[in-house]
Design brief:
This protein is an all-alpha fold. It contains eight helices and no strands.
Length: 151
């Protein structure tokens, strides 16, 4: 029933920041992230009359669109090296230089371990890190919550 759906403007306002952050973590530049995020919301707007909130949360629905748009972006560009893209987007610490160096070493070590995971597991980690619940990640990736938390 269409009345079960929140107005698209509310969905846009509520999820724009999270979708942009997810996309930005995947791509190398903020310009690409802005373009892909705009494409995500354009695709979502065009498909909004088919969105069924009783089947999936707005977050899971939008993150599925964002994931697909990001994959399309890399297919078009022929780039698949997610570790390099992620390393270009290092978190900035507001600590002393030695603490920043230690954090960077630990972060790079973590990225190296994550890069060795299969692509599907890397996607799950990225989606979970973007704020989706385990259930939403499981639904988005077509697996159960229990299976998603055990891997």
């Amino acid at each position: 029933m269409a009345s079960d759906r929140p107005p698209f403007e509310d969905v846009y306002r509520d999820y724009l920041g999270r979708i942009y952050a997810y996309v930005r973590a995947q791509v190398g530049t903020s310009a690409d992230a802005e373009d892909i995020t705009a494409q995500v919301f354009m695709n979502a707007y065009q498909a909004y009359d088919r969105f069924e909130p009783r089947n999936v949360t707005p977050a899971a629905w939008l993150f599925r669109i964002a994931r697909n748009a990001t994959l399309d972006h890399f297919r078009a560009r022929g780039r698949r090296d997610r570790l390099q893209r992620t390393m270009e987007h290092q978190p900035e610490a507001e600590e002393d230089p030695s603490a920043m160096a230690e954090d960077r070493i630990q972060y790079q070590g973590l990225l190296a371990h994550v890069a060795r995971l299969p692509e599907r597991q890397r996607d799950a980690i990225s989606l979970r890190h973007s704020g989706l619940s385990f259930d939403e990640v499981g639904h988005l990736m077509s697996c159960s919550e229990g299976r998603g938390t055990s891997r």
